Amino acid sequence: MATIYEVSKLAGVSLATVSRVMNNNANVSDATRKKVTAAMDELGYRPNSIAQSLASNCSNSVGLLVSELHGPFYGPMMSGIENTFRNQKKHLIIAAGHSNEEREKQGIEFLISRNCDGLILHVEAVSDDYLIKLSKSQVPFVLINRFISELSDRCIILNNIKGGYLATKHVLEQGHKQIAYISGPLWKKDAQDRLEGHKKALAEYGLPFDEQLLYQGDFMEASGFTGLKTLYQHAKPFSAVICANDEMATGAMASARELGLTLPDQLSIMGYDNVFFTRHVYPPLSTINYPINEMGKMAADWVLSHVYQKQTAPLQTVFEPELVVRQSITTNPQ
Amino acid sequence: MATIYEVSKLAGVSLATVSRVMNNNANVSDATRKKVTAAMDELGYRPNSIAQSLASNCSNSVGLLVSELHGPFYGPMMSGIENTFRNQKKHLIIAAGHSNEEREKQGIEFLISRNCDGLILHVEAVSDDYLIKLSKSQVPFVLINRFISELSDRCIILNNIKGGYLATKHVLEQGHKQIAYISGPLWKKDAQDRLEGHKKALAEYGLPFDEQLLYQGDFMEASGFTGLKTLYQHAKPFSAVICANDEMATGAMASARELGLTLPDQLSIMGYDNVFFTRHVYPPLSTINYPINEMGKMAADWVLSHVYQKQTAPLQTVFEPELVVRQSITTNPQ
DNA sequence: ACATAAAATGTAAGCGCTTACATTTATAAC
DNA sequence: GTTATAAATGTAAGCGCTTACATTTTATGT
């Protein structure tokens, strides 16, 4: 592989000049610029990005930590991020944290040790304090789907209270009066917020919130399954169940069928996230849209702006959810 | 950030010695090793991986090109790969090719320019010739889900003929006699192979293959939708349709319902890939398992072995599909 | 105690770039 | 034609490591 040295020799200029044309430095005459690019072409020269990084103290790489590389939620997020960065010649180093404190910390360590210029973090298990401490170290980072008030300017989040509110309001509007709720783990802020929105809608319709109709799940499919079963067997009757995410809604669907209920006639189910497979389940699931792809892009823009001083579209930290009506909610239940 | 120089000064040894303890070189006495690690701890030293890469001519990064970062197929593949590499302190740089020739080439260029030591490629649009030429350049790569005979030792593939065979055989065993087929784009080898397996099973049961019952799709959901509609309106009657992947099967399901058919009673549907949401559709889709996660791991092992000379489990290039029976196929259709 | 080999450590060059600073060349003003 | 100023180019010192080779220390055999 040709080096800058060989290019400079062929072009008959100094190393510095070659470097200047590479970096589009203004102070190069057209004539020499042409000589240099010609020499580059002739040699098939490609700059060594490692050497560039070492000399410029900028690796042009940004680290991304997500809980899982698979699963319906992270894919669209990564897509949005990758796209933005590739256009800017930055590259993405990806690691998985598996929603586990130790592994999330390891992942962050790993990315830092890889000289990332900035980090995009979707972490769940690591503590607020850890992140606040981290924010005082060298490497800048932005948080997706997590709010820490001390770090509020770098938290890209969804308005989950509103989302929870919209979901329940829709179900209420269809005439349901007995509504069960399967929440996420309530130590998580987003699970809390969604539930809070639910309560708010209930209150608005003059309905009391009933603890008996609440089941605390963990955002995973299985907990939707057992959640519905538990509610069905122990709680008072209900005509609709609202799930704090689509995975649990899916579990609840399976559970409902196992209980012999026909959907949606005998039970309406509402999801949250608008993960792509919600269109494909049967009946197609009504849910709340989580614009995760856009939020990924915004996180990338944040990095572009704060780390690389690039001009970007105005940064937005809180996104708004939207109701997506499909066919899992009946009107006027008996 | 402390450098190796400061560590060496604190420990009272030379740079080389510090480097040796970092790299676990055997020729370091226990006493000095201790001194050095103590100094490292005291300074909170972290080696600069960029400098290491430049000096050692090894970036410890491997590039991964997939068609999309989202979608049900690539997630599990990336997961398998990331996991293997992180344990080995290698890192993954990810780019998307979008099944488009230009973008795939760009992606490969991008990864190479990022000094990847090796590449894992899931490419669809780029030509065999291009890849053969690429194989003669510096950077080693392995191919997932693509077979090129000149490069056969670095192609990690599924036995798609067998998969196609298993799918059709299962449907035949349930008593179906009129079977439609929605294929992938037939310029793709995997689409061809799956269809070939289908024909083989038909032949084994003494049934002729009927061109009229074939629709050529493009592996995307929409083509499953229009495919079924087209077949239904123009072809002779059939009691089952086999789709060359799950996405198209999903489209076919939606289409069937729109045609007023109840599933699976009036139409059996078979998928391929065993993408995770196939459990969630209704009726749960019978399909062929594609062990993409394992294949991803194998690709990572290939790189570990060929690029980094690591000892790995024996390499396997062709994987076997398996039938997954769920509830989308009826028995003894009328 | 000595010679000899093996183990431990040090020296210094170099990986391929960037960039501050110095120098040369072109341009403008008089 | 000078001189002042700006533009273009060159020089050389790093960036933080690895590693071939040289040197010193330690262990081994007699």
TrEMBL record, chains A, B:
Residue span, HTH lacI-type domain: 2-56
Annotated signal sequence range: none
Gene3D superfamilies: 3.40.50.2300, lambda repressor-like DNA-binding domains
A family per Pfam: Peripla_BP_3
Source superkingdom: Bacteria
SUPFAM superfamilies: lambda repressor-like DNA-binding domains, Periplasmic binding protein-like I
A GO molecular-function annotation: DNA-binding transcription factor activity
PANTHER family (alphabetical): HTH-TYPE TRANSCRIPTIONAL REGULATOR GALS, LACI-RELATED TRANSCRIPTIONAL REPRESSOR
Protein name per the record: LacI family DNA-binding transcriptional regulator
Species this chain originates from: Pseudoalteromonas lipolytica
